[in-house]
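hi!! sorry for the late reply, been swamped w classes. u asked for the two structures so here they r. pasted raw, havent cleaned anything up. first the sequence of the first protein and right below it the tokens
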Amino acid sequence: MEVRPSWRGLAGIGTAVLICLPMQHGRDPLPPPSPPPAADPGVEVSGEVSVEVSGEVRGEISLPPLLAGTFIATVKTWDTMAADERIGHARAAGLLLDAGVRRKSTGGCTDRRRPSCTSLEAIRYGTLMRTIDLRRDSGCPVTVTGGTETGHADGRYSHGNGYKVDLAHNRCLDAYITGAHHYWRTRADGAALYRAAPPDMGAEVGSDMRGDVWADEPTHWDVLFR
């Protein structure tokens, strides 16, 4: 006897199979990932960002941990192109105060016309900022006891023209200056002169090629910043 399957039975089996299949409940298939945008041929992409900071920088600059190693920072502590600019006493005193540099005068005053005062009026910007650099580089206490007030020797590179400052002696500063500079010669008044250049260069005082000079006077350093 030949047995033929019933169409109703096959339909029932098909319905059961469809019920057992997982349902997607209306979920659309995920779209294929979009290709990355094409780089502009005229733009060069770099993994490093260069940051330049200019102007008067007070203190140190640090980056958050997540940014460390990401930036290349170029820090200028001050604008050397403005070194010959003359600035007023108030601004100069503020810059020294912010940098931790002290000021002192025997007369307790700032009048440029009185030799017992310590005035910074019309001091060179470069002279002032080099004094601040000294404080930072040496890590020593720095106290300005003489500036542009009257009573100092005249000359092109003089106190009155804003090129020189007097700095009080202390052990830390004395050791730093004599260790970082070479003895050059002894001045006519007996003060030992130091400078950064080797002593065999033979430049005379006042020469444009000489650079900074540090004169060790009995009560202070008489410093010429060029």
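now the second protein. again sequence first, tokens right under
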Amino acid sequence: MPPAGRVSRGVADDPLEPARAAIERGEYGRCLRLLEPIVAAHGVTVPLGGRARMLMATALIGQGESEHAASCVRGLKACADPDLRRQARDLSLILEAPSLQRPENWSLTLPQIGAVESLQQRVVSLDQARPGRARPEAPPPPPVGPTRAPLGFAIVVAAVLLLLTGLLGGCLRVETDLSLPAPGRLELSQSLTSVSGSWMPWQRQFASTLADDADLSRFKLSLDPDQGRLSLSSGVVSPAEAAALLKRLALDAGELTGQALPAPQLSLQERNWLLGVRQQIGFELDLRQLQPLPGLSFKVRLSSMGVGAVRTAQPLAVEPRPKGLSWPLQLGAMNRLELRSWRWSRLGLGSLLIVLLLGLSLLLQRLRRQAGFGWPELPSP
């Protein structure tokens, strides 16, 4: 075996070796690009030029350019190498040989797939062509009878799902009590009561959140785990403080549940007529983001108000109760309530009573003078 250095030097001395390697790999285009400068630099009479043209003819045949390859081979007749001239002559005879016409019966022509009728269509057409032929009867049903729907299992599954939905999805009453103890003052109380009567984990977490909230420290928080009740009372506050309390409760509940809850909008407008105050209360809560859940309910209770004070209640109507009104909220809807009421002023009524008594006293004195009694006098000694 020759040394590696001698082999590499022999390959480097043969400029046609890269072209031969390209032909062996099927890279005919690269082979032609490698041979073009060699053919241009060496004539056909030079052995290197003749071998280069023979390789070029082989690459052209590989690309399907037989005519170009034939013209290249014809030029090799002037080559000085007799072996190359013989190879060129043999290759030229092959390339210039006329093409023979083959009879049609020497080859098999396959029809197009879409034009051939399928075997299934043939069977169907044969069945339709024989209407009198009796079709085989359907196989008898299995000995166990037809399959019936598992009604009992479905009822059990539905009951279990409803029970889990009731225990985990809702079972909570949220009630807000609103009263107007005096003009310009509100008293707000909100309670969360478990329908099952037992303390829910969510209530325990919410109570801890309310207790840690510094903004709610001045309000009264009441816990009754035995009854499953959690309540927060504001006492007598201004309308702005009551609205801020509702917004804070909605914010804490949203942070605990991981869902942004809209803050209720509470407004109170009053107009003083000395003898009384015309009050207009507006309450709005957007619950369109909350889908109805079994056992979950919201309700607003208004104290010391009658049905006549209601101007707007959407979407559910206001229900009268012994000491006021009860307005249920609907989940998945926009809830609006508007009330208008007249509240007598004790100070105004007292002032009016004093004025009336004073006028009555003056009237009686005038009647006394007209009767001839004159002004009241002290008895003489």
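hope this helps!! also noticed smth abt the second:
The longest strand covers residues 172-182.
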